[in-house]
Amino acid sequence: MADDKVLFITGASTGIGAATAKAAAARGWKVALAARSADKLEALVGEIGSERALALTCNVARQEDVAQAIDAAATFGPIHAAFANAGCGIGTPGAEAGDPEEWRQILDVNVWGLLLTVKAALPHLRATKGHMLLTGSQAGRSHLAGSVYGASKWFVHGFGQNLALEMKEWGGRCTVIAPGMVDTPFFDEPKPGALTGEQVAAAAIYALEQPEGVNVREVYLTPTGR
Ligand SMILES: NC(=O)c1ccc[n+]([C@@H]2O[C@H](COP(=O)([O-])OP(=O)(O)OC[C@H]3O[C@@H](n4cnc5c(N)ncnc54)[C@H](OP(=O)(O)O)[C@@H]3O)[C@@H](O)[C@H]2O)c1
Q1: Residue 103 falls inside a structural domain
Q2: Chain centroid to CA 193
Q3: Which of 34, 171, 180, 183 sits 20 to 30 Å CA-CA off 193?
Q4: What is the mean pLDDT of residues 49-67?
Q5: What are the tens digits of pLDDT across the range 6-37?
């Protein structure tokens, strides 16, 4: 069990982030929940309990938001882990048909927001010899025709392994969580046969609970059902 260690999670308002928050709180973590939707975060705090969960309204694409959220999380308890999980998809696929404004949003959240989260979290994780988790994707391990979303996840996979090497210098750990399709609000319609947020959360908990000296560099999980 994690005692009073804080896990900071971006994209915590729904889907994988919310499921990880609930699973981690049940395993004894305090969870600091960051996303833009204050109402959803407050509802989740109500569910988990305010002694274990803290809501932090934050747009990960804004450096000052992320810095403030991390500072607030650190007042909740020492940050032993951070999960850069916030991400968004794309409406119009393809390079030729795609919308540059959508590409900018994808890069702002999936790449820039992830980098800002890592940068803000690292001094805290260095102090605790802590753990960084990043949400990659099956789309970052395979090629999809014209996919800018997939390429944003290739960044996460490449950077995640580089970050693992940097954190190793001071005893920290870094894990890329790479799911195939997950049935979450990421999609407008249900995805029967896909993974659940809870199943991906279990993968994150598995990485977090490894004994000292073990770094799970990647968990790549896909549904058998589709
Ligand atoms: N679903 C899948 O099939 C799948 C597969 C592989 C990987 N992934 C990845 O898993 C991660 C979580 O996605 P999910 O499936 O759980 O979908 P989701 O339910 O739509 O969750 C996305 C989360 O990101 C947050 N978010 C989006 N833009 C943000 C911003 N600018 N600032 C702060 N938070 C922001 C959303 O909260 P607010 O809207 O409240 O800000 C929400 O909490 C993403 O990185 C996604 O790319 C998903």
Answers
A1: yes
A2: 22
A3: 34
A4: 98
A5: 999 999 999 999 999 999 999 999 999 999 99
- CATH number reported for the structural domain that contains residue 145 in this entry: 3.40.50.720
Which numbered atom of ligand 1 lies nearest the CA of 136?
Answer: 7
- Expressed in angstroms and rounded, the spacing between residue 130 Cα and the centre of ligand 1 is 23
Residue 55 falls inside a structural domain: yes
Query: Is position 1 within any domain?
Result: no
Spatial distance between the Cα atoms of 6 and 75, rounded to a whole number of angstroms: 10
Residue to mutate (ligand 1; options 8, 10, 13; most atoms within 8 A of CB): 13
Domain that holds residue 98: 6-221
Chain segment 203-225, per-residue pLDDT in tens: 999 999 999 999 999 999 999 97
- How much distance in Å is there from the Cα of 95 to the middle of ligand 1? 22
Global pTM value? 0.98
Is 37 exposed, middle or buried (CB count within 10 Å of its CB: 0-12, 13-18, 19+)? middle
The number of the ligand 1 atom at minimal distance from the alpha carbon of 186 is 20
Catalytic residues: 149
For atom 46 of ligand 1, the residue with the nearest CA is 87
> 65: number of CA atoms within 13 Å, CB side?
16
- Is residue 226 included in any domain, yes or no? no
User: How far is Cα 55 from Cα 164, in angstroms, rounded to an integer?
Assistant: 28
Q: What is the identity of the amino acid at 16? A: I
Cα 213 to averaged position of ligand 1 atoms, centre (Å): 30
Q: Token digits for 21? A: 């928050």
